[in-house]
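Worked Example 4.2. Read the sequence first, then its structure tokens.
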Amino acid sequence: VHCTRIDDPSQRWRLAFELRGQASTASSEATDTGAPVHPRLPDAVQLIDQVFGTQAQAVDAKTVRQLRTRLERLLGARETWDLPLLRALFDALWARMRRRRRSAEHERVWLNLTGYCLRPGLGAPLDSWRIEQIWPLFAQGIQYTQDSNNWSEWWTLWRRAAGGLDAAQQLQLLEVVGEHLMSIQHARRDKDPLQNSYDDMVRLVASLERVPAAYRVEVGNWLVQRLQKTGDKPHTWWAVGRLGARVSLYGNAENVVPPDTACAWLQALLDLDWRTVDHAAFAATTLARMSGDRARDLPAPSRDTVIQRLQAMRAPTSWSAMVREVVELDEADQKRSFGEALPVGLRLLSKEP
């Protein structure tokens, strides 16, 4: 890195940085989180380099597809990968992102691993920088547009990174995904590769907590109408619960949908048999959850009805507690809300009173 005079570019000086660390080897260095990295990280990076590196030799499709499995054999089940390891793996994948387009398998595996290692888009000191680096990829899109699995991984990556995106970026995502959702409503399944990623797009738009409440109301109303009229997949109710949640997972209270809208969605949920409809009970719980803010909380009768239904079906006691009083989500409920577990060692606490 050099410093150059603006008025005379020929005058330049090399900048020196003092890098203070306890060790010089990759296996014992600290990451930007301040915690030591996994001792097998160098071996993991070598596996990534075999698939996405600059070496000239060809890598067969099977080897590409097995990268995640090989990483898990080396590092343990990916559910156990902690935040420092995840971000270190992301950095290794990002450094090789230009080679993701070598084949459809390369692109799919890169999207899957990169999104998983970046989730939920915040939590580590350099995550804002990572989001700045990866956001321009959205404008580029995917290379293998006829591969439905690649579309699924594409939308999943942006859902996993959503927590780090600002309001403008989330609005751009919503606009593009909304157009796709509208376009595939009447498309033949065998004609549009986006059809098979419908669920992934719905989960993505439901996770955009920084868009204004009016947009979330519009999306939620559309989903409820589809669920009531077209018999959409029952697990889509999870998205309705996320859109109408009284307490955001990472967003601001100002973007929470109004209580009357949440009550309307809740009534649609109360008309269902929660024992047979996936995610209906937990969606109702998030809609009726106590925030401690009178401007957002549902009327007491509505919350009492939800508690009675939860107790009748013997739902986890933590769900009734969430509707009855202001409590933080436990690990299991946080996983249900996000749609997957957060990185080991990361817990997002509500910033709201």
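Now turn to a second chain, presented in exactly the same format:
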Amino acid sequence: GAVRNMGHDFWNLLTGIHYLYENKILHKVNKFLVGPFDHINIGDVFPEISSENIVNFGEPGEIFLYILENNYVAVIATGFFLKEELANKMHSGAIKRCSPDCLQTVEKAKKHFPLLWFEIRSSNARVWVSQVEGIANIIKSLHSDFPNLGVVFAGWHRLAIDYPGAEAVIGREESIRKEILALIPPDIETYSTIGRPIYEAVVWVNAIDIHITPFG
């Protein structure tokens, strides 16, 4: 939770803790020091970790003071491959945080085939210039062959903490989503996780058949 970037938190840090889990040495860790960017709670993902062994901090800098004050030897367990077992544990952990309404909607969406996930980006980096027209064209083309398809729009997801500028990003991505909706047949059923909690996105992504996502 000391790394602001969600991708590296999932890809490198959760995988490191999973390595400890796989090798049955989680119990050898005295304390898990968790910063504010804990994008998905490690206690939910790894119920094997006692809540008494998880220490949460409001600022990353507080972690280092805590280490010094307690004379701890601290390490960062890292990995580089997110295995299916870890993905399943993340999914199980996310379900615990989702409302019954969210879970029912996801189950309802599974009636579609294919269920497509489109990741919308509104920043200047790593963005498909014609994503509005391009995504709409892909949806319309596939709909002609798969009349029962469903579409999930994803983008910025809310976390337990506030990211500076998050609301502005969510607003821009919502506008892009509405532009796409205006270009596709109204009978195509769509769903959106934009601005929803990250836990809901983890549950949704487990239900989709295929995704189109910008690099990064």
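Notes for the reader: The mean pLDDT is 92. Helices lie at 6-22, 42-45, 60-69, 84-95, 100-109, 131-145, 166-181, 198-205.
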